[in-house]
């Protein structure tokens, strides 16, 4: 990826000389009523306890990040599939005015809804896929401990209650681009010298 991404960026810039080109990355994260656990500190005489309510309802968090600036863009949806991902890409392209004058090279993993032949890719978006089984190369993977923060070791009665807490958290993260850039702009990331560190 260290050599592949700069090469792909250069090709897009040469093909579209009048466009600005940004490098973004995207990943999905499943969250639900099944609790997420983390270790907690307690004094030696205390016994940690946790309220548990098992449930098997899920939501999917779609996270886009621009590592250079730390900008993020989020969708919270009930599932993932090619049709929904096509709609998410369309909205992303419209939100950032992608097309003739601005393009995004979007780095993704090889999930079937990312690679499907029926995926509708809007004008202004080019896709680049990570090697198989390489989550450590995906900057967006580093978003999930941040989004999980307000829901770990907690129990929710409904998926809607959990989503409400998550939406509040996403609004906080949108306001922290410098912090996000520091976590996601890897040392080998193209244009690393422009990262918001």
Give the topology, please.
Elements: H1 4-15, E1 20-32, E2 58-66, E3 71-77, H2 82-95, E4 102-108, H3 112-115, E5 125-129, H4 144-148, H5 159-174, H6 177-184
Parallel strand pairs: 1-4, 4-5
Antiparallel strand pairs: 1-2, 2-3
What this model shows, in words?
It is a single chain. This protein has 197 residues and is α/β, with parallel strands linked by helices. The protein has one domain (4-36, 51-191): 2-Layer Sandwich (Nucleotidyltransferase, domain 5). The protein is 30% helix and 21% strand. It contains six helices and five strands; from the N terminus they run H-E-E-E-H-E-H-E-H-H-H. The chain has helices spanning 4-15, 82-95, 112-115, 144-148, 159-174, 177-184; strands at 20-32, 58-66, 71-77, 102-108, 125-129. The protein has a five-stranded mixed beta sheet, sandwiched between helices.
The count of domains is 1
Arithmetic mean pLDDT = 90
CATH topology: Nucleotidyltransferase, domain 5
Number of helical regions: 6
Helix content: 25-40%
Rg over alpha carbons? 18 Å
Describe the structure in brief.
Helices cover 30% and strands 21% of the residues. It has helices at 4-15, 82-95, 112-115, 144-148, 159-174, 177-184; strands at residues 20-32, 58-66, 71-77, 102-108, 125-129.
Key features of this structure:
single chain, 197 residues, alpha/beta, Nucleotidyltransferase, domain 5, 5-stranded mixed β-sheet, 21% strand
């Amino acid at each position: 990826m260290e050599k592949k991404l700069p090469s792909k960026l250069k090709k897009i810039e040469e093909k579209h000389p009048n466009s600005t080109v940004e490098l973004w990355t995207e990943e999905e994260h499943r969250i639900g009523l099944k609790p997420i656990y983390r270790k907690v500190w307690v004094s030696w005489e205390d016994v940690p306890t946790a309220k548990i309510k098992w449930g098997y309802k899920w939501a999917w968090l779609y996270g886009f990040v621009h590592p250079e600036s730390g900008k993020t863009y989020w969708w919270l949806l009930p599932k993932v599939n090619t049709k929904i991902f096509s709609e998410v890409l369309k909205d992303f392209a419209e939100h950032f005015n992608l097309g003739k004058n601005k393009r995004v090279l979007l780095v993704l993993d090889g999930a079937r809804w990312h690679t499907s032949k029926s995926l509708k890719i809007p004008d202004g978006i080019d896709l680049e896929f990570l090697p198989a089984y390489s989550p450590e190369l995906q900057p967006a993977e580093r978003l999930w401990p941040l989004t999980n923060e307000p829901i770990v070791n907690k129990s929710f009665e409904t998926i809607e209650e959990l989503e409400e807490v998550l939406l509040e958290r996403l609004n906080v993260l949108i306001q922290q681009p410098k912090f996000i850039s520091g976590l996601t702009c890897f040392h080998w990331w193209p244009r690393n010298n422009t990262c918001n560190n």
